[in-house]
């Protein structure tokens, strides 16, 4: 009787990546914290004490309540309220949904563009490679936040103030995604230059497979390791970039704020004593970015064959 082939979970449990993960307490804590924050954001409508985006439930008389454990706090609002009477804890949970959605969408967008251009540049070579890499070099001369501000300003001018609020999410994804695609393209190009001369690629050419088939079905799976590492680290950068744009007033509107918008709103009242409005969203943003960055650092080391 032939032996049963190991399943996916068994192979994952016996892999070097899982072994590395279980041997790093800091990585385990980072994964738990990141997973808890993501789940709390996804389940915000179920676990949030209030709906901060429903005007019918807000009262201006509830504004500027400090955290509930202070002498002037209200037990209904654990972390206090902002200038509109919104519960800070609820706005953080809902704000994380927007920040994470923009972060994930922009990383996927940048990854699709960068990986595709990197595959084409490395596999085709010649003038195509030179054109793509020169565009990438020009892109690298501009800071990511400047590129995002430029695209956001153009979109704001073309759409107008009223229509802009309807497309602000897509504009943020576009502006942040176009700021990060170069890393994927350069990394994938370098890996493809190595892979395209290996025997399996030569064999695929010999049997008449089309270049696009070879690139995406045979070469791409062998260059995804570094791409996953870049995507994990860029997720934290994308969340911080979105928060920076929102803090500067060019992100999502205050009626549906992200973490960056909450920090900007709270900054207006920081020196008048209402510290909780900006401190708690700031701590949440820092913890989220730090946990994702630590996971990215671990993944980079776990997938590096020189460190095994």
UniProtKB/TrEMBL annotation:
<feature type="transmembrane region" description="Helical">
    <location>
        <begin position="26"/>
        <end position="48"/>
    </location>
</feature>
<feature type="transmembrane region" description="Helical">
    <location>
        <begin position="219"/>
        <end position="240"/>
    </location>
</feature>
<comment type="similarity">
    <text>Belongs to the binding-protein-dependent transport system permease family.</text>
</comment>
<feature type="transmembrane region" description="Helical">
    <location>
        <begin position="275"/>
        <end position="299"/>
    </location>
</feature>
<dbReference type="InterPro" id="IPR000515">
    <property type="entry name" value="MetI-like"/>
</dbReference>
<keyword id="KW-0472">Membrane</keyword>
<feature type="transmembrane region" description="Helical">
    <location>
        <begin position="136"/>
        <end position="155"/>
    </location>
</feature>
<dbReference type="InterPro" id="IPR025966">
    <property type="entry name" value="OppC_N"/>
</dbReference>
<feature type="transmembrane region" description="Helical">
    <location>
        <begin position="167"/>
        <end position="184"/>
    </location>
</feature>
<feature type="transmembrane region" description="Helical">
    <location>
        <begin position="98"/>
        <end position="124"/>
    </location>
</feature>
<dbReference type="Pfam" id="PF00528">
    <property type="entry name" value="BPD_transp_1"/>
</dbReference>
<keyword id="KW-0812">Transmembrane</keyword>
<dbReference type="InterPro" id="IPR035906">
    <property type="entry name" value="MetI-like_sf"/>
</dbReference>
<dbReference type="Pfam" id="PF12911">
    <property type="entry name" value="OppC_N"/>
</dbReference>
<keyword id="KW-0813">Transport</keyword>
<keyword id="KW-1133">Transmembrane helix</keyword>
<feature type="domain" description="ABC transmembrane type-1">
    <location>
        <begin position="96"/>
        <end position="296"/>
    </location>
</feature>
<keyword id="KW-1003">Cell membrane</keyword>
<dbReference type="InterPro" id="IPR050366">
    <property type="entry name" value="BP-dependent_transpt_permease"/>
</dbReference>
<protein>
    <submittedName>
        <fullName>ABC transporter permease</fullName>
    </submittedName>
</protein>
């Amino acid at each position: 009787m032939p032996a049963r082939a190991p399943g996916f979970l068994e192979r994952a449990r016996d892999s070097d990546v899982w072994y590395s993960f279980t041997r790093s307490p800091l990585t385990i804590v980072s994964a738990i914290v990141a997973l808890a924050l993501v789940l709390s954001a996804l389940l915000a409508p179920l676990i949030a004490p209030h709906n901060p985006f429903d005007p019918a439930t807000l009262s201006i008389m509830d504004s500027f309540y400090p955290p509930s454990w202070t002498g002037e706090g209200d037990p209904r609002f654990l972390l206090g309220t902002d200038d509109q009477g919104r519960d800070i804890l609820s706005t953080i949970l809902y704000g994380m949904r927007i920040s994470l959605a923009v972060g994930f969408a922009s990383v996927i967008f940048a990854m699709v563009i960068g990986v595709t251009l990197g595959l084409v540049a490395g596999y085709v070579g010649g003038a195509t490679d030179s054109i793509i890499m020169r565009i990438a070099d020009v892109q690298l001369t501009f800071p990511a936040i400047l590129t995002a501000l430029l695209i956001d300003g153009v979109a704001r001018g073309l759409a107008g103030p009223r229509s802009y609020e309807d497309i602000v999410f897509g504009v943020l994804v576009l502006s942040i995604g176009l700021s990060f695609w170069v890393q994927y393209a350069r990394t994938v190009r370098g890996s493809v230059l190595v892979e395209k001369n290996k025997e399996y690629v030569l064999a695929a050419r010999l049997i008449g497979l089309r270049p696009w088939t070879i690139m995406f079905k045979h070469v791409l799976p062998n260059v995804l390791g570094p791409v996953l590492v870049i995507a994990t680290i860029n997720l934290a950068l994308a969340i911080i970039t979105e928060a920076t744009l929102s803090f500067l007033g060019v992100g999502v509107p205050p009626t549906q704020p992200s973490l960056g918008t909450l920090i900007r709103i709270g900054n207006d009242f920081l020196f008048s004593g209402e510290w909780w409005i900006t401190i708690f969203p700031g701590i949440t943003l820092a913890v989220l970015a730090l946990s994702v960055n630590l996971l990215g650092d671990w993944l980079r080391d776990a997938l590096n064959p020189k460190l095994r």
